[in-house]
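Repro:
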Amino acid sequence: MKPNTLIILLALLCILFTNNNAVAQLSVTGKVKDNKTSPLANCNALLLLPKDSSLLKGTICNTDGLFNLQNISPGSYLLALSHTGFENQYIPFTLNKENTVYDAGTITLLPTQQNLKEVTVVSKKPLFEQKIDRMVVNVKSSITSAGSTVLDVLQKSPGVIVNRQDGSISMSGKDGVQVMINGKMNYMPASALITMLDGMSANNVEKIELITTPPAKYDAGGNAGYINIVLVQNPNQGLNGSYAVSMGAWYGTFPSANFDFNYRKKKLNFYGSLAASRLAQLQTANLYRKIQNGNKITETYINTERDPSQLNFNVRFGIDYQLSSRTTVGVLVAGYNNKWHMTAFNSSSTFINSVKDTGIGISNEETNHWKHSMANINLQHTTAAGAEISVNADYLDYSNYNPTDYTNNYYNGSGHFLETSNLQSSKKTNIKIIPVQFDYRKKLSNKLEIEAGAKGVFSKFTNNVLVAELEQGTWKPDADFTGNYLLKENIGAAYASASITASE
């Protein structure tokens, strides 16, 4: 492999990432009070786009009524403030690079006017709710979440930062956040998790819990917090369901569709969901860099044209059966098939003291294909004494195939072709995980509650990596970057906790 090729590729990536993140990030602050000048704690402060009122970011006010929306790009916005029992207020404003902080000042919300002759009670959950140990994002009650993905909702949630480049999710400034679905731990790798959440429709989600102070029964590895995604469930008898279809377009198309159903009859409950989406958006970038070292001026022009597409399929089916009034057994199967594919062309020209020195054209094609299947069996039982016992056993299988091909054409300063090099890299990954968990919970009195449990996780990981260059019609692997890896890991843990309510 030619060292110059690697250097140019790395330089291209560094320049792209550096320029993409160079936009000034601003913030919006303010204070909310009621008409009696008292601070309104837990007031929702939402940042909207004026043209369609789509949600960009949100937070809630602290006990002093203060809010702070950070990491905002310059532009025109609409600040929406809402609180239960008060009239909503909307404030248009513009952010620019000169003013890094926009202070909305003190905003007063007026009580909702009521007609006592004819009272209609309408209950609507706020988008954000602050609990003692967690913040709840009520996705189902938010019209701004329609047609979005779960990853889109997380990006707009207070304290959550999603980094798509390195495939990580952080909360309250801490990395290593654990993600659960309906209270069950998700053991997939971070990059696979980002892909799954980006293909999961928000229409199938009831709420998202951002747990900053997790109870003892959760894994110790989640010291940065937990995100629990609670899917829609329907307790009504008979057959119930819903579907949603959406389409977006901007230098590409973004169709999505999802369907979920629930059939409940006496002791039987059968449920499921299907979702599909495709994201395709042309991406172009024109970059320029100038470096002066004494009398030598080096200028680099880079043009990038990317044509990516991401196709997502998600499926989930489950059945619960009530063996008795105190015992329920359930089975769940689920999976997804997410395939990202991209063709791209990158060109770079270097000038030294205004004279063209070299040129390179790089054509590359990349696929990142994640597949996942899982099965779960669970048992919930309440003893005659009121103790709650639950048993969960899962089997999870993940596979990833990530091939990339590069064709590099080199030119001299006069534009004459010099040579071509062909490179390829690929990664094949398979992960198998078997978690088994037992939990016990008992309320001994009105003030004392105990919890205990045990858990075992058995996993196997294989990863085959290949980097090769085409030489005289034969692909020759690079021994420094090629290898096969195997990891087996078995973990066991137990916990116990007690909760005591102090006397008033």
